[in-house]
Amino acid sequence: MPQEGRSVFRAVEHAKVYSSVVDQILAGVRSGTFPPGTPLPAERVLAERFEVGRGSVREAIRVLEHAGVLDVRVGSGTYVVGDGGSEENALRARAAVAGEHSPLDLIVARAALEPVCAEHAATARTSNDLRVLEDLVLKQERVLEEGADPSAVDADFHLAVAAASHNSVLFALERTLVDLMREPMWSELKGRSRGRRDQARHYLEHHRQVLGAIERRDHRRARQLMAVHMSEIETGLLTELGSARDRTDGPGR
């Protein structure tokens, strides 16, 4: 371990022990103190430097391994993964510490499920399903005109598309994802992304297009349009994540 790594660490507050250990190891990885492929100090050494119990260090390493930051090799040690310092991995680690799910992991799951929901909705929808979807699009438009938060009605639209598939398993899975979309990290990042360049109205137009394809029973187009919608949401999240990193780093870094 580089000697200068000692200056990265400080004693942590016992009230938030393992989360502070996670943050400090992440800081060391992202600053280059621990370059890709290098081993971390032994668990005992880290515990001494952080002035915490070895259990807290062990839990922090477990979280960072799951997040893709570290690679624990039995009998060899714990190593920094090649892209371990990426913003995506850091977000996953912070979400785990908060007891949440990474917004980027959530959008991957949504991108896998929601185009399928839209495709099946286009073939299975009823006239009542169409009325529900149309009402939600109109409500979303009113909410935006009032300058209010459209997140609830936005989620309701996606849940209604799943309901229109008349597939109880798809609907149950989508309901789980909608519940996860209420987590603070998703809400905050998606909210900031939605505020960029009138992105909220852009998403509303996506909903109108998906509704049109479902109404025409064009299942291929419905799936395609929902996939495009998910892709643009992901792009917006990544853009906002990069901007947040730039703001944190500041000029000259």
TrEMBL record:
Gene3D superfamilies: GntR ligand-binding domain-like, Winged helix-like DNA-binding domain superfamily/Winged helix DNA-binding domain. This is GntR domain protein. Keywords: DNA-binding, Transcription, Transcription regulation. One of its GO terms (molecular function) is DNA-binding transcription factor activity. Residues 15-83 form the HTH gntR-type domain. Coiled coil: none annotated. Pfam families: FCD, GntR. It comes from the Bacteria. The lineage of its organism: Bacteria, Bacillati, Actinomycetota, Actinomycetes, Streptosporangiales.
